[in-house]
Amino acid sequence: MKRTAFIPFFAGLVITAAVLLSPLKGTAGVNVNVGINVPLPVVKIDVPPAVVLIPGTYAYYVPDVDADIIFYHNYWYRPYGGRWCRSAGYNGPWAFVSANTIPAPLLHLPPGYRHMPPGHERIPYGHLKKNWRAWERERHWDKHGMDRAAKASGKAEKEHWKAEKKVAKRERKRDREY
Fold this sequence. Notes:
The protein is α+β, with helices and mostly antiparallel strands. It has helices at 2-21, 104-107, 125-137, 140-145, 148-177, and strands spanning 51-53, 60-61, 70-72, 75-80, 83-87, 95-97, 122-123. The protein has a domain at 51-159. The model has no long low-confidence stretch (mean pLDDT 76).
């Protein structure tokens, strides 16, 4: 009788051990990311920068540095290497952001916006930080902001941009026909 009780006990022990020691069903995978993290070239701005309004937008660029640094909606943006970076401050730290988070006005800046003719007002940094929300909400620049020379150049830039779009559209249409 002792022997018959031992067999079910031993069989149960073997089954329990087999269940506990068997590998669980799962998935295995390998993830390899290859990338080169090239840091942005450092642009050191020693004093809070003055900015200039980009005509037809409520975006402002820093005219006195070699890099494109643009203020829009309380963030600073930098295009670099086909991508965009964003920062809470004009000196960084900069972080790359995905393309779908870039505000549309920044993606459609007028060509040559950095080469504005004289007459564009330089806005002190403190004045910008204090007023940008109200200016945008009240459409300040649409009503009275830029002087006549700046408005005329902004209008010329818009016309130039429209003409470029028409030429590009004609070229795309021509290419499709061939």
